[in-house]
Amino acid sequence: MRKGETKMVQRHLKRIGSLAAVFLLVINFISAEIKVYSSVDSRSIRKNTAFRIVLNVELIDEKADFDEEKIEFPEIENLEIRGKFTSSSTQISIVNFDKKKKNIYKITYQLIYRGDKEKISIPPIKTEIGGKIYRTDPITLNVGGDKAATGISENDREFFITPLISRKELTEYEKFNVKYFMYVKPGNQIRNIAPDKKMHFDSYISVQKYDVMDELQKNQNVNFEKTVLKGIEYYRLKLYEYDLVPEKTGSINIPEFDFRIAYQKKRSGRGDDFFDSFMQNSRVKESIVSTESKKVRINPLPDSDFDNFSNIVCDNLRVENKISSKKAVTGEGLTYRIILKGNFLSSLASPPEFKNTDNWQVYEPEVVEIPGGVEYKYLIIPEKVGDIKLPSESIIYYDTGEKKYKKLQMRDYSIEVSAGEEFAAEEGENQGKKPFKTGNIHYIRDASEVVDKYNPVYRNWWYKAGVFICLVLIALRIFKDYREKKYFTDEEYRRMVESSKMAKKYKRKVKDLKHQEFYLFAFNFLQKYFSNKLNLKGNFPTKNQIIEAIKNKINSGKLHPETVESIKEIFEELEKGKFSPETAENKKYINKKISEIINIFESEV
């Protein structure tokens, strides 16, 4: 190369180097900026339906602190802020061979729009950082229609929650029912669902009748039922059910509630088993779904001429009264039951007034809720001998069907009462003894009579034998644990026990896995199993670390040399299966080898 050409190349290289230096400086300058920007779930929202706007703040090696109190969210007509929550994280990156730390703050606003515009514009969100004002870009949103009665007019929704109310016009103190149903289109998997906050019904007395989470805890499963709404197929699930009694009159609302739903699109050919859920967590999304607010008309009760109104408002109340016996003895108790059945809230109802008389001593009733009503159990004790009538009781309630107050008279009872022993207690064997009243009357016996007839359980031979066997088993278990712990630290012993539990779970979980899923699951299982069993560092040691640890066990005489070769073969086949399933041995053969190794380690190590 000639001298002139050499100098030209050198000049070009210098220019390229200068440009590269300038480019790196620009990159470094840009990366050091404070970034403030906003994002939204979707540019299309629905009226009266919750959506979220997220304010993102990124501080890259900045000394200025971020103060959430200095954020100014714009005020927009008919736009409500339903909630706000903040999260933060830190990222470390290398830029131009220099380590950079980035602090990221996410402030999430939960919003609902209640206006009639088809488009709304969210002005810039402002915040002050280090004495400087930062603004986000404005956001324009398209507004769709309101949720109609059942909320199914919009065919593009994958799932929604709607309340079903039994009555929309009621009378004061009248009970009605509200159920919350979730509708899900086929092809979606619901991973979790929960109210954004505790469900509270203002202006109502509420009693929860059903909670889907309680059902899950009892049965470990809930069933979606198939249904078709306006030609669209859905799966329906009942989430909650409440009985409500209004405390006010006029037009009052059933409040709207927000629910957080974690969901994902179901992949074809996969079941909803444990492993499928474990592998697909990265694709789970979260959404906020709002129910609509419903109005209920509450009419006031008319004035009543009765003094002893029971606070029961329902259609067709039924009453029944029963006595435990039509014959009685003075001083001995009878059970008098009054049963009320109808659609009313039992906690609001007043028990029938059943007063003491010269003939009867009456105790406060026991209140028992029964299906469709309530039962009052009175203990009554006759005081006089003869043919004694029970007081004739009645109950006053408001009939919503006929829209008037009604008086229900209860059945009359005449009780034949004979003299009890307390009338002759001044002489005979009960002389000087007083009756002990606990419902039925019994005289207290001498202590010696009671002791002679009492035979406690611990005096029986079979009880003593059972206790002896239990103590022997406990002693053997303590001795076994002591022998095992003698050779290990507490942490080593804990990991050994944990590996044994893992071995039992492996055999149950591996049955339903597909081939490629099996290879990945089995590989990770063996890493963690040997990590605990051999007390290795970390949950996922390498294959070589595991082999080396097993060789040490062989040298100590605890394992046979062939064990190493078997484990090498298993790991090689599992690695093949993860990346090239067609070249690996079949699942059944490998699983058999793994089971054999587990049995060896559980019995020998």
From TrEMBL:
Pfam families: BatD. InterPro entries: BatD (IPR025738). It comes from Candidatus Mcinerneyibacterium aminivorans. This is Protein BatD.
